[in-house]
Design a protein that fits this description.
The protein has nine helices and no strands. By secondary structure, it is an all-alpha fold. Helix 3 (about 40-50) packs parallel to helix 5 and helix 5 (about 70-85) runs parallel beside helix 7 (about 105-120). The longest helix is centred in the C-terminal third of the chain and has 26 residues, at about 140-165.
């Protein structure tokens, strides 16, 4: 599995929309929660399906509407993943940093930023981000897979560098 594939995040997982509830759902509650942002959800689905251009476009459109901070952070984490798939690492990093700035508890944003660092050969920074993510979600299979991939990429890069210097 490629590291870019691990960077894909769905808005549904990152910030599951709260279903509309009536007072019958909770006898003591009269709160009604509105529907989620369909553009953000559709963008997340497109990204998950590998349609990066469409996913980025829909997510950017969805961000034009007011959204809860957590949804906005998840959308930026999704944009980071989308831009990774499009090989636009500077743009990806910008959105990962925005996501983390809005929600330091979003382990997916750390995973995605680690993908950017990994793609740039900044393995120690990538490992540090995965470790931050694991503090938030210690049992995440995605983060554990990412960590293994980064370590393998770091070893492979070291071997290539060693062979080049020996030549």
């Amino acid at each position: 599995m490629s590291f870019a594939a691990l960077a894909l995040v769905t808005l549904a997982e990152a910030s599951a929309p709260t279903p509309i509830r009536s007072s019958a759902d909770k006898p003591m509650s009269s709160t009604v929660i509105g529907p989620s942002n369909v553009l953000l959800s559709d963008g997340a689905t497109a990204l998950e399906e590998g349609r990066a251009d469409e996913g980025v476009r829909l997510t950017l459109e969805g961000l034009k509407a007011p959204n809860p901070v957590r949804d906005t952070a998840a959308a930026h984490a999704n944009l980071c993943a989308g831009y990774i798939l499009l090989h636009q690492l500077d743009e990806a990093l910008l959105h990962c940093n925005t996501a983390i700035g809005l929600d330091e508890g979003n382990w997916r944003a750390y995973n995605n930023r680690a993908a950017v660092f990994d793609a740039r050969g900044l393995y120690d920074q990538a490992i540090a981000d995965i470790e931050r993510g694991l503090k938030i979600s210690p049992n995440s299979t995605v983060l554990n897979k990412s960590l293994k991939i980064i370590h393998a990429n770091k070893r492979a890069n070291h071997s290539r560098s060693k062979r080049a210097s020996d030549a």
